[in-house]
Amino acid sequence: MAIAFISIGMDLQCLFIVVKEPKMPTQVDTHKYTKRKHRLQTSPPNFSVSSFIGSSGNKLQTGLSSISNVTEVNVFWYPNDGSSKPLLINYQLSNEHKWYKKTKVANTWKEVSEKDLGKPTSPSDQAKIKKLLIGASSPEVTIKIEQVPGSSYISDDQTVKIDRTGAADANGYSQITHRIDGKTFIIKSVTHGDNLQTVQGTTTFSKDPLTEVSVFYSDFDSKLSKPLLLELKLHNTQTTYKYYEKTKKQMNGSYLTRNKETNMLEIL
To answer: Using omega within 30 degrees of 0 as the cis cutoff, is the peptide bond preceding 227 cis?
Structure first.
């Protein structure tokens, strides 16, 4: 059985056997990703994967298992433009699939758990594959809710823009929205001045990919000193939001989680 040292950006070198990519990688235009299939050209087709080498700099990739009886390796690149990167790897075995997603740490990967409801069932499970790719490609940023509307700030090398509108259907409140143009993002942390904002009963805010974070204030709060509500707009949906409510007892920085179906007006 051949032992593969896999380069996720080039042809794969296996001892005396070359594992080739197809001449034309499969592009999934509706989901804007590319699948590159790697397999042996000999019979039997099974091989063992020893390690992965990065597509630039020949860096050893960590977190990926050495595994035997592999029939095919699929590497998923996202998005389909000049910034495309390998973000998801699939081992195809005779009776199962193993999946690994890129983490935010350089050259490090993590296995997609069997308990993870988002685990794809096959290399053709486009919706779940796209969801994992979006999560892996979304930068983690600190949302600075003390920043004033009409400006922008830099967080973790990303430019976050801020807009202010009246809260829809909620007279007497202002909505301050933070977004990154053309990108989804994941919350790393939330701050208000020197105060780290926390969530009661858990350690962090949602780690879902987002398109916007909105903060609601009373119109009487001209200094924006007392945030009342955080609204997280989840990616790829027009209706799904997550809310975090600031009550009087939690004014020191802790939020209560509200069900995503909760109407904003019921909180404000």
So the answer is: no
How is the chain split among helix, strand and coil, in percent rounded to 5? 5, 45, 45
Q: What's the whole-number mean pLDDT along residues 14-32?
A: 52
Mean pLDDT over 132-159 rounds to: 91
| Non-local CB neighbours of 12 within 8 Å, separated by 6+ positions | 4, 5, 6, 18, 19, 20, 21, 38, 73
Q: Residue 160 corresponds to which tokens in the numbers above?
A: 């976050």
Summarised one tens digit per residue, pLDDT across range 82-138 is 778 899 999 998 888 999 999 989 889 999 987 766 799 999 999 899 989 999 999
Give the dihedral sign, CA 189/211/218/244.
Answer: negative
Residues 6+ apart with CB under 8 A from 71: 39, 45, 46, 92, 93, 94
> How would DSSP label each residue in 24-71?
SPEEETTTTEEEEEEB-SSSS--EEEEEEE-SSTTPBPBSPPPEEEEE
CB-based contact 75:69 (threshold 8 Å): no
Cα–Cα nearest to 263, from 164, 167, 165:
167
Q: Contact, 238 vs 228, CB < 8 A? A: no
